[in-house]
Structure formats: C-alpha cells, structure tokens
Amino acid sequence: MVIMMVGASVFLLSIAGGAVMLVRLSSGLKGPIDFEESYLHLISFITLFISLFSLLSLTEPLLGLALGGGTLAAMDRWMRADLINRVALLLVAFPAWVLSWRRVRRTALQKDDLLHRLYLYGVATIAFTSAVVVVASLLSGLLQSLLGVMGWPVLLKEREVMKDLISGVVNALVTSGVWLYHWRLAQRLPSGERAKPEVG
C-alpha cells in the first residue's frame, strides 16, 4: 500500500512539475526557480494525499470493529498488520503535512506565486474527483442493497449496509472537506492576471 501511495504521488508530482514548466514557458516567466519553495509544496502534496488515502482506507475496517464485526485480536495476522501500518502511516504523514503546510502558507501570504496557485487548484481537482468517486460508490452500494443485488444473509447484510453507509458518508465528508478548504484558499488568491507584453 505504501509503495502504491508513493508511486501515485510521484506520478502526480511529475504531471504537476511538467505543468509548472509549461506555464512558466508559456507565460514568459524567467529567473531561477525557488527550489526551497518547490520542495515545501512537493512535501505538502505528498504528505497530504498519503494522509488522505490512509484515512479513507481506515474508515471501513475501524467501523467494522466498532459495529461488532469482531475484535482486533480476532483478525488474522496479515489484516492486523495492514491496519496497524495504515494507522502508523497516518500518524507520521499528517503531522508532516501540517508542518510543511504552515511553511508554505507563510511564504504564500507574502507574494502571488504561480506554484502555490497551481498547487491549490491541483489539490482541489484531485480532492473533488475523489469525492465524486466516493459518493458514486456510496450511491452504488445503497442501490444494490435496496434492489437486493447483494443477496447476503439478513443479519450480515444489515451490518454490512450500515458499515458501508457510515464509511461512505465519512469518506465523502473528508474528501469534500479537503476540496472545499483548498478551493476556498484558491478563490481568495489575487486574480493573477499579468499584463500582456507589447508586440513590436
């Protein structure tokens, strides 16, 4: 799971880095790249989505335990180790995001920066897409339950439906919250319109 998360983050960061270079070239921006600022944005991006995906992956198993789906000791060793790894990843990644994000925000408040603008809109786009997928999955589960597609035993079905419903709602709130937070920050930025260079 860790390898998949890091791999996905690297892939998204490669796209983001390419987008930054294209925007700089198309806008005629010159001068050295601020590597410290770029580093802080990259760390914030990676740790934010590691935290987000870790949290989303934890809601269902934790709700299963809370709703009487067994105990942690009753889980097989692989599932127990996987759950603990997700918790540990969240406990490390989230504080790292908080620390790096504070530095990013402190720097961004001092100037209108292209990298920060791209970061906010990029995160908002990914979070919004994640929220759409989560809500669609929640709706699919509800429809399958109502139409009797799953065909589970009654008691198991009720418990699973309740777990899936609460898990879906929590995940939808989390992804929507991440989107709304970054979207509102992006909307507060200056317009960013640059005067077009005179031709001739």
3D architecture notes:
It is built from five helices and no strands. It has helices spanning 2-27, 35-66, 77-108, 114-146, 154-187. The protein starts with a helix and ends in a 13-residue tail after the last helix. It has one domain (2-187). The protein is globular and about 55 Å long. By secondary structure, the protein is an all-alpha fold. α1 crosses α4 (114-146) and α2 packs antiparallel against α5. The model is unreliable at 152-156 and 193-200 (pLDDT under 50).
Question: What attributes does this structure have?
Answer:
mainly alpha; globular; 200 residues; 78% helix
Terminal-residue CA separation:
56 Å
The number of helical segments is 5
Please write the string of helix (H) and strand (E) elements.
HHHHH
Q: What oligomerization state is this entry in?
A: single chain
Integer tally of domains: 1
Structural class, judged by helices and strands? Answer: mainly alpha
Report the average pLDDT across residues.
75
Poorly predicted segments: 152-156, 193-200
Beta content: under 5%
> How many DSSP E strands?
0
Shape type: globular
The helix content, as a percent range, equals over 70%
> What is the CA-based Rg, rounded?
21 Å
